[in-house]
Design brief:
Bound molecules: 1,3-dihydroxyacetonephosphate
CATH superfamily: Aldolase class I
Radius of gyration: 17 Å
Largest sheet: 8 strands, parallel, barrel
Number of domains: 1
Helix content: 25-40%
Shape: globular
CATH architecture: Alpha-Beta Barrel
CATH topology: TIM Barrel
Strand order of the largest sheet: 1-2-3-4-5-6-7-8
Number of strands: 8
Length: about 250
């Protein structure tokens, strides 16, 4: 049985000004004065704060991640940021295929896979997001929807490079609602099966994060579920105290 070191990533989404770096300092303080964290800690701020988070987080072991990247390395794509640019300012991770980007920017599985490939090419570890809508779950399609997203969004390169999968049921994001522990266990087991089917032993080592209303109150039980190898935290990652409580729940 492989042991996978857990990872907790905070996704700040479109939140955070330079003043928010105080929250990062507070988190660094908690991480360095308290018990050593049992998880890899990643903070994914808006692109404007990435360089500062990477520089400031380094001494306390906080890693920086982007929230998105373009598929190409450079060129005429106004407003876009490439994976190489994220790496250049110190990012080690990048979220790709978050449901908010799939919805707001019409990102398809094929595009998400291309972004994951671009991230790997730039030396980043992509955090590839999948998850069903509430209607899909109600229709009994959650497993097949997620299996299809995995098949098309996770690149073949995941067989040789480190990637992370994040299961985020869309209806649980920012709603305060979560699936039952049994539903989380079953979905994560299914994702594990698909990854092992495709990547063999390597698939058994890929971290599968849970995301969607992960909070200090529910983190301990959710993070203890089999095949839940950490979490992707939205709202609760904005406050150092809450995020630290989640990290300490591992
Ligand atoms: P919340 O934790 O705010 O529900 O957001 C989850 C999420 O989308 C993380 O990427």
């Amino acid at each position: 049985m492989t042991t996978i070191s857990p990872l907790i990533a905070g996704n700040w989404k479109m939140n955070g000004l330079t003043s928010s770096l105080e929250e990062l300092s507070a988190l660094a303080q908690l991480l360095t004065t308290g018990e050593a964290p049992r998880a890899v800690v990643v903070v994914c701020p808006p692109a404007t704060l990435l360089a500062a988070v990477a520089a400031q987080g380094a001494s306390s072991g906080i890693m920086a991640g982007g929230q998105n990247c373009h598929v190409e390395a450079a060129g005429a794509h106004t407003g876009e940021v490439s994976a190489g640019m994220l790496a250049d300012v110190g990012a080690q991770y990048v979220i790709v295929g978050h449901s908010e980007r799939r919805a707001d920017n019409h990102e398809t599985d094929d595009l998400v896979r291309a972004k994951a490939e671009a991230a790997i090419g730039a030396g980043l570890k992509p955090i590839i997001c999948v998850g069903e809508t509430e209607a899909e779950r109600d229709a009994g399609q959650a497993e097949s929807v997620v299996a299809a997203q995995l098949a098309s969004s996770v690149p073949d390169a995941a067989g040789q490079h480190e990637v992370i999968v994040a299961y985020e049921p869309i209806w649980a994001i920012g709603t305060g609602r979560t699936p039952s522990n049994d539903d989380i266990r079953q979905m994560h087991a299914n994702i594990r099966d698909r990854l092992v089917e495709r990547f063999g032993e390597k698939g058994a080592q890929i971290r599968i994060l849970y995301g969607g209303s992960l909070k200090p109150v529910n983190a301990r039980e959710i993070l203890a579920i089999e095949n839940v190898n950490g979490g992707l935290v939205g709202g609760a990652s904005l406050l150092a105290k809450d995020f630290y409580t989640i990290i300490s729940s591992v």
